[in-house]
Amino acid sequence: MTNRSSDGVPYVVIGDTHVARRVCASLLQIGSEVLHLVAPGDEELRKAMVREPGGVAVLLHDDVAALRYALAVAHIAPTASLVVTIFDQTVSQQLVRLLPRCHVTSPAHLAAATLVAPCLAPDALAIRRTEGRTTALRRSGEELVESPWALGRRARWRGRLGRVAGQLRPHDAGTRILLVGLAGILAVLLGDWAWLTLAAGHESVEAFHEAARVVATVGPATSAGAPTHYLLLSAVAMLVTVVLTATFTAGVVDRLLGPRLVGLVGARALPRSGHVVVVGLGQVGLRLCQELQQLGSPWWAWSEIRRHPT
């Protein structure tokens, strides 16, 4: 699998990934000499680099193996240009510090730019961040044009409104039971308080105390001399509250014992609109979520496909 170029400088590609095969094909198309090593041992790697290579690309999915090959290549040919694919950002940063001539990237990082674009700007081919600047790549006729890009104000407001609308919204049966019980208890409390305040003319604090006693199923404090219709209403309210309290308690227990992947309030609440849904949290999915977060777009990730929340 070699094709000698005019200067006879070889390029070494290590790995059996799809990216490695594409790199070999691209180098061959421009007339370069390519030596493709699938999983070389130390001796095979040393023989392949007897001649000083024009560049070495370590294109693997295994970070540990990629790190080992990168250190071996740097030891054998310290002046050769080196490209390594490593997903873990901490490992990649430490490798760059140790080998300043090494360029570290990952297929997930390369793919994230092209996946972010259709999510945020349908007319863009890719959106990427370089040196604190965000640019979008678009096609203009037969040419590719790169221009500055920023998330619009309308999209930001849609994201915020979607996040607010997602607060206290049920997403499963347990949460629905919890919210139904809570809403019923609050309705009984407010209804009794409004009755005492508006119809009976009680003070607000006194009315609230009476309503709280009804919700707690201990009866109104001033049952003696109270109107018959109010006694009947408070008795029905206490019986209903018993059922609502049991419903609320069941929802709380399910919430505490079950996996809490989605929050009821706060940043973990499931947004209702203006966000990007990412299904799958592999290398590409995780890097896509990181890019969306850096660009200021709300997102929600699912580790696997389940029943879609309503």
Could you name the CATH homologous superfamily of one domain?
Answer: NAD(P)-binding Rossmann-like Domain
Instruction: Report strand order across the widest sheet.
Output: 2-1-3-4-5
CATH architecture of one domain: 3-Layer(aba) Sandwich
Largest sheet: 5 strands, parallel
Tell me, briefly, the overall form.
elongated
Provide the residue-averaged pLDDT: 82
- Output the structural class: alpha/beta
Give me the count of strands. 10
Treating each run of at least 4 consecutive H or I residues as one helix, how many helices?
10
Give a short overview.
The chain has 310 residues and is an alpha/beta fold. The protein has ten helices and ten strands.
State the main characteristics.
alpha/beta; 310 residues; disordered N terminus; three-stranded antiparallel β-sheet; disordered C terminus; Rossmann fold; five-stranded parallel β-sheet
Topology, pairings included?
Elements: E1 10-14, H1 18-29, E2 33-37, H2 42-48, E3 55-58, H3 63-76, E4 82-85, H4 89-98, E5 102-105, H5 107-120, E6 126-130, E7 133-140, E8 143-148, H6 153-165, H7 173-199, H8 204-215, H9 228-257, E9 276-279, H10 283-294, E10 299-302
Parallel strand pairs: 1-2, 1-3, 3-4, 4-5, 9-10
Antiparallel strand pairs: 6-7, 7-8
Helix pairs in contact: 5-10, 7-8, 7-9
